Structures are given as C-alpha cells and as structure tokens.
C-alpha cells in the first residue's frame, strides 16, 4: 500500500557535517529517495548540466519565481541566489517518492512554513551532546571557553526545538543509522498511513 | 545523554500475532527493554515464581489495587483478573529503561489515558493490508465474504487511529524490523531529548 512520499529535511548548524552525512546516505544507498534540483542565478561551471545539476536562470527569472511563490526556500550567497523549486518536490511526493533536502537552518524554517508535514531532522554537533561532560569537569578548560560554548548551545537548542528529530553526528555511520530508522518509522506512522486505509473502506 | 525510557505498547486485534512478535523481539535481543510483571488472581502453576512470572494476589487485594489506582490497566478472563502494576513501570521509565507491554486493544486504550507519552504500536493484520487487492479483484470471492471483511476493516481502522504506528505483521521478521526502527527513531525525537539539553544549559 503506497502512502504519499516523505519530505525529509536534513539541517543543522553550519559545520556540523550535513553534506558528509547526505553523501553517505547517497553513496551507500541507505534508502531510496529523489533529489531536488536547485535553481540558481550563478553561471554553470564546465560540465554542469541545466536541469540536472541546477536550473540555471537569470536574476529576473529568479525574482519572478520568488514573487510567484514558486520556491520552497531560497537564499543568497556571494551575490547569487539559490533556491528549491516547489512544484517538482510536490510532484515527487504525490507520486509516493521520498525527497531529501539538505539545507541550512534558515531554509529549513521556511520549508516548515510551507510544508509542515515534512520530517525535519536536526543534525546535532557532538560537542553539544558532550557539553555536559565538560561542564561536569570544570577547571580543565578556561571558563570563558565554557561560557562561550554554553551560549552557543542555547542558540542551537532554540533552533532544535522546531525539529522532529535530533541526530547527534558523533560518527557519520551512527547518524546515517538513525536517519534510516527515522525514515522507516515515519513510513509506518499512523498519521501517514491511515488515510490510505480509510480511503480503501470508504470507497467500498 | 540518557533520556527517560520509552513505554512501548504493542497491541492489535486478537489473533494478529502480538505474542509471536514479542517473543521474536525477546529471543533475538532486538533492543534492550524491561519486562513489566503482571498482577493476577489466578493460582500459580507449578514452577511459577511470585514477583517473577506474576504477582499472585487475592481478589480482595486486586480490587484494592484497582480502587487505589495502582494498575495501569487490567482485565478479567475466565473469572480471574490480570493487570499491569503502575509503580514498577514508572520506576523503570524514570531510570531511563524502555518498558515493553504486549496487551489487547482495550488495555492499550486504558494505558493511553494514563500514559499519553507512550509509544503505541498497532500490529495490523496482513489481510487488512491486502484487502485493497481483494477489492480490486472482486468476483473471485463471494460478495458476503468481502463485505464481512470490509466491516471488520472499518472496526480495525477506528482502533488504529488512536495509535502512533501501524506495523503490518506480514512476516514476523518485517514486523520486528519496523518496531526496532520505531524504537531507534523515538529515542532521537526532539520531544523526548530536548528537556535534557535544556536542563544542561539552564543549570549553568
């Protein structure tokens, strides 16, 4: 019985290793999912194919896409825009395919507004997870280092609270195992499967 | 970082194979969990140990436990009472241990009232899952058989909607794999881990 696909959003603080974890999922074929091809205003590099690596568009086209609500999220880096087109993502989900987006926390927040039923995974820095050990062993590190880390942790926890899952990236293999379990579990969650069952008996 | 333990409630229609799935989890040590020892008014059978196989009590003691709200759920079969004592379950969860209860759907409903944060898994009959195939191939089976199965399915779906997960028991190995994924995923769900993180930074 095919349920609608899952929108998996993998995010977390910069430097936490989102890209590495995503690559491990792709390389080891941990679970099947579709790519979302991003839209960008930067020029293609040699070998890059339009519609495959990116949708390459002009700045005017990109801004029109923003205005028409055609982007799930977008961002600007170094004078160029990058965004996730909404229609292809919705089409893949309707076909029952899972879609994986690996984006920064600002992008993830925008995606949550448009697609609240997505599965939002916050990749957690291992030093947030082990911060309690450092706190228990105060004296071995300068107090200002500890206080700086506590303030950073407060910010990370504020962001994390809007996610569904918090996966510690202590090792890539562990993080990937947890993400696989999350995908498996979400596929059998009642909120995702019950409509299919209801439809089956209602139509007879 | 130890979060509070999970209360796992495995239930489903009678005959779906709850006991077999639970035994497979136990025998293959799929994940560690604690047993909840039930309380009963029936007499011990040869070899059964009080406090290990069951807490053996009198009917007066059992009724007193009901009156004092000491049972998470209870039921009566063939003139004997069977129930799940609340205090040991709460103690194990507070110690961060997972507790697995395998009970019927009436018991599960009572547990949900008292412990709404439990993880409720509905073991789904494979013929509910494959009913849509039978419906698509009408004519190969008598119509009254099909209609009887549709009515039964309606009842099962009504019960399922109060659960968190619906796991099809097509093969025991598949069901166990899904339950393992559910346990792994729930352990990294933000709603279960964030209090530990918040406590860590608040106390410093």
UniProtKB/TrEMBL annotation, chains A, B:
UniProt KW keywords: ATP-binding, Cytoplasm, Kinase, Nucleotide-binding, Transferase
An MF annotation (GO) of this entry: kinase activity
Residues that, per the record, bind ATP: 12-19
CDD domains given in the database record: GMPK
Record-listed E.C. numbers: 2.7.4.8
Subcellular location: Cytoplasm
Family: Belongs to the guanylate kinase family.
Protein's name in the database: Guanylate kinase
Species per Swiss-Prot/TrEMBL record: Lactobacillus xylocopicola
């Amino acid at each position: 019985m095919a349920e609608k696909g899952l929108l998996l959003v993998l995010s977390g603080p910069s430097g936490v290793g989102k890209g590495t974890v995503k690559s491990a999922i792709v390389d080891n074929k941990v679970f099947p999912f579709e790519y979302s091809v991003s839209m960008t205003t930067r020029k293609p590099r040699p070998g890059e194919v339009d519609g495959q690596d990116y949708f390459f568009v002009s700045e005017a086209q990109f801004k029109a896409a923003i205005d028409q609500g055609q982007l799930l999220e977008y961002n600007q880096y170094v004078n160029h825009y990058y965004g996730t087109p909404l229609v292809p993502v919705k089409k893949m989900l309707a076909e029952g395919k899972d879609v994986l987006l690996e984006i920064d926390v600002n992008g993830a927040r925008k995606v949550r507004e448009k697609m609240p039923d997505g599965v939002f995974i916050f990749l957690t820095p291992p030093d947030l997870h082990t911060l309690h050990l450092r706190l228990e062993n105060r004296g071995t590190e300068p107090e200002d280092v500890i206080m700086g880390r506590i303030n950073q942790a407060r910010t990370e926890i504020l962001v994390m609270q809007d996610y569904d899952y918090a996966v510690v990236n202590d090792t890539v293999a562990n993080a990937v195992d947890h993400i696989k379990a999350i995908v498996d579990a979400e596929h059998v969650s009642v909120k995702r499967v019950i409509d299919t069952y209801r439809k089956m008996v209602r139509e007879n």
